[in-house]
Known about the structure:
Glutaredoxin, 11% strand
Amino acid sequence: MTHDNRLALEKSPYLLQHRHNPVDWYPWGEEAFNAARAQGKPIFLSVGYATCHWCHVMERESFEDDEVAALLNRSFISIKVDREELPDVDQIYMNAVHAMGMRGGWPMSIVMTPDLKPFFGGTYFPRPNFMHLLLELNRVWTDERHKIDEVSENLVRHLTSNASYVGGDVALSDALFSKAFAYDLTQFDATWGGFSPAPKFPPSMQLRLLLRIHRRTGSEKALEMVTTTLDRMARGGMYDHLGGGFARYSTDAQWLVPHFEKMLYDNAQLSLAYLEAFQATGTPMFAEVARETLDYVLRDMTSPEGGFYSAEDADSEGVEGKFYVWTLEELATHLTAEELELFNRVYGVTRGGNFEHANVLNLQKDFSWAIKADPRLQSAHQKLKAVRDARIHPLKDDKQLSSWNGLMIAAMAKGYQVLRDSRYLEAARRSAQFLQSRLYSDGTLHRRYRDGEVRYAGTLEDYAFVIQGLLTLYEADFQARWVTWALDLQRIQDARFWDEAQGGYFYTPTDAADLLVRTREFTDGALPNPNAIAALSLMQLSALTLEPALKAKAERVFQAAGKPLEQYPGAFAQLLIAIDFYLDDTKEVALIGRLEAEETRKMLETLQGVFAPNKVLALAGPEDTERLPLLEHRPLLQERTTVYVCEDAACRRPTHDIAEVLALVQERRTYALTGVPAMP
């Protein structure tokens, strides 16, 4: 008979997946720590997330196994953590895994002392290896505790030293971009796009930085790296050609076979990359990919309350990719002969398949994206989408995270600005309203909402990503309430996370408990770096409010990144995006006009459609009395929509002419790429 363990009382879908394990799991917290201290046992910490394929594998092999469970229950206190609920815990112990010289990933397996000091770590272990490790670690714990004490103390010293790193002076100059560009050039796969061998992850932040480098240098190679990568990713199996949206990564170098899980944050960042590429190039494919990705989120990843869900699993019915792949026989059952013949040619379908005797759909190089408009192909898409919808769906991780919602608010708001689809604006508003009503209370932004429960104080990424989402939303609907809330969140973020001694923001608030160290990070991971996002928001808020202290704080964030920024700028793509804003002739655009007026709408469509990322756009009607400082004392002239384009609060003469406004906004400070290796 199966009995629930303590995880049955949790809301996390990942923890609930383990509620029936024979392992005597604890959630992260004092009950577990006290048990370890009282019983004199080491802690086994397992960190993962609900849509993690190898987490499922390790659960089936080990955590559901009675012999493994008996060993864990006898010799360890076992804690299960959802890394998406507690990213601060995950970050600290992932840093420990890296410090041990191992590659990170999930599931993450850590063994530590009752006072939370790690002494062994890794990721997935097959059952025989796992049993051997547990037995050996228990032996060392029992017989050679001094070795454990030495290892754990050294690791803690290392983690503490890294967390207290002093940045030093950084020369904020164009040389940073030349160095980042040169690095990308050496890593670029000219055939398939991307910047790494297999496995290939979508390089959203690098691509958006290269678009900015192209804009300010005119480098066609920078643009080529962007367009090649975006084209190949969308053609490959990592993109869902029937339902829209991207999988987490490609298992091969050709974007052919994905790891099928879909994450909200990937789709938010990729939407922004495709939208900006469309702005920069006018390539219809990029707009269509962005639209289909946002439509996927609206359809499958949006809660009735307006929040965005977190992820969809790679597995269904215990098989990776089963929901997404097709055999030739299945296709022949559902399509006409004419549809089948075209579909197979367009998507490279074969009898043998390209993934375990089935086919992941890949748009073949002989066809342009426009082939998808063919009525035969559209009919095939509709039929197969209906068939797929009737299959057993992968698990949906329906918890809603403030930070990831902030990223998608920005993507939806940008989608509205570029594609002029009001559904995206409504989705961004609803998510912002959901966060404000459900996850923000008593001056605290919380991290997670699920099944009516709000839990965990927000981390830096929650505050930073939500603030950036609100600022992007303001530039879509110009409701000043979003800036007002962003400023409130900024004040809280400054009070709870700012490192006054060294600059930059800690990842956790001042009152965070049960953590070995408070970390400050400036490099990107799967998510954009929150210090970098915060710096960009500070500069945008400074432009809207005319408060130079906000920009000065952004400068301290840049300096806190220190010499590694100068030495390895390729690891700081999001921070360089913010520095590009800082170094450019940034435009502050104040638009005075009635939103319902045709002239105002045309002006907005022009300003929002152009790729001019280093601008801040504000709007007020002529009778509005509550204006942002950027809009104050800006009259409507000649009863026509009037635009004031400024730099550092010094404004050009007001104008009604769209072409003149466009020329002013597109002005930029150019630079030349230096020290770049010769290009073939």
